[in-house]
Amino acid sequence: MDTTRGDNLGGGLVSLATRAEELTRCLYYRTVDPHGGSPVGDAEELSVLLGHLRSLTDNVARTLPGLGGWLEERLLAGELGNEREFEALTQSVVEVTSALACARESAARLGRQLDIAENVSRTLSAS
């Protein structure tokens, strides 16, 4: 079983995305309300955390083109709407895939910035 694909997690893409959303929400809440303690133990832990966030962002960026491709394939296979709506459907698919491309670039930019933050934060470690 390939754990990098998440085959061991069960469920489809929506289930995986829902779980990712829940986990990132928990991460957010723990950073803004660490229950009286510090949200991060030390600079080394911050660096590790930033590395995981960069990886998360990179994975989101890599996911988006596949979603646009799926939508285009469904359009060309005639599996979206009906023939009378083809022009409007085509325009909608173009808008969605364009927005996904912009989102991918934004996520990639975020990933690059997190990579910089991760690398610089390594120099802050006391060890």
Secondary-structure blueprint of this entry?
Elements: H1 13-32, H2 43-76, H3 86-122
Number of strands: 0
Which residues sit in consecutive blocks of at least 5 with pLDDT less than 50? none
The number of helical segments is 3
User: Gyration radius, to the nearest Å?
Assistant: 19 Å
Helical content stands at over 70%
Shape, per Cα inertia axes: elongated
Structural class: mainly alpha
**N/C terminus separation:** 38 Å
Main beta sheet: none
Strand content: under 5%
Helix-strand sequence:
HHH
The chain-level mean pLDDT equals: 89
Protein described:
It contains 3 helices and no strands. The protein has helices at residues 13-32, 43-76, 86-122. With 127 residues, the protein is mostly helical. Helices cover 72% and strands 0% of the residues. Helix 2 runs antiparallel to helix 3.
